[in-house]
Amino acid sequence: MYKLIISIVFVLAVLSQLFAQEYEYVPFPDSGAVWSEMYTSDETMVVYERFTLSGEDTIINDIYYKKLYIFYDKTFDKKKAKCIGGIREDENKRIYFKGDTVIHNDKPLWLAEPPLDEMLLYDFSLEIGDTIKNGNSHDEIVVMDIDTILFGNTLRKVFKLSHHVEWIEGIGNTRGLLYSSGDIAIGGSNGYLICFIQNDIVLYHNDYYDDCFPSTLNADIKQINPEILVCSNPLEQQIQFKWCNCIINRIEIFDVQGVLIDVINVSNDSTEVNYPTNRMQSGVYIYRANSSNGYSQTGRFVVE
Q1: Does one domain contain both 130 and 38?
Q2: CA atoms of 134 and 136, how far apart (whole Å)
Q3: In-domain check, residue 12
Q4: 151 with 270, same domain?
Q5: CB atoms within 10 A of CB 262
């Protein structure tokens, strides 16, 4: 009984310290930070890539940035890494990237071509209901909700935006550091933040991955993106999804604004599914087919 009382007192003390902790803004890191990410597209198999801010300064157009490197090993080796530009934070909690290269079609911005203008990656001063321009497109993303969550020993704001975008204060986008926020990736491109590590401490870890630094040697286990064939049948008022090289367990249907309107749950032994369109308005829709190995393909279809 005495031990039980001691345990309860200890738990209450921990909880009281937790709730007593006051929130303070966490600046974006300028050194000792590593983003471990996964990327795929129609043109690539699984690519595991890492980004780091080593603390080195660089001056571009008379503006100070922290050098951003990309590397592919488990540990950062400057001799093997490539500097791809710089990141800076201004006094208004806005994070900017400046670089001279497009790493992939969707990184850092799918509409951009080198040389890249300075681009706004994040604005952590936003409030619920605020909007932010989505790169060079005409879309805007909206702050839908803001939570304050404990990461390690620090409270951080988590921004939940439209178009299934999530920002974590002092970390970035859960789809990847340079992912183009606001767009549903079109054409099968896909990206996820696997881990964020600050000063050798893991502060964010995607539960799907056992290792913060997966190897491409395991790509045969993950396999590649699912290949989905989409056929429209106006006479029967349905869209047919067909596949043969993977197991699809879920297909999400979005409107052109990125709003989820329906979810199709698929049994493991299925290789096709017919989706009725008789209640849908005419126009363009977006689908995202999720495979059992954690990857997805995104595309469009038209309802006449």
Answers
A1: yes
A2: 6
A3: no
A4: no
A5: 13
Q: Are residues 155 and 272 in the same domain?
A: no
Give dist(CA 286, CA 187) in Å, integer.
Answer: 10
Here the CATH number for the domain that contains residue 257 is 2.60.40.3080
9 belongs to a structural domain? no
Residues 210 and 274 in one domain: no
Structural domain harbouring 252: 226-303
pLDDT digits (tens, 9 = 90+) for 158-205: 999 887 788 999 999 998 898 755 444 333 456 789 999 999 999 999
Closest CA to 87 of 51, 111, 114: 51
Whether the Cβ atoms of residue 299 and residue 188 lie closer than 8 Å to each other: yes
DSSP 65-119: EEEEEEE-SSS--TTT-EEEEEEEE-TTSEEEEEES--SBTTBS-TT--SSPPPE
In total, how many domains does the chain have? Answer: 2
Positive or negative, the Cα torsion across 129, 132, 134, 138?
positive
Strand partners, 252: 263, 288
The strand pairing partners of 146, in sequence order, are 159
Supply the pTM of this predicted model. 0.65
Most confident among 81-85, 228-232, 254-258 (mean pLDDT): 81-85
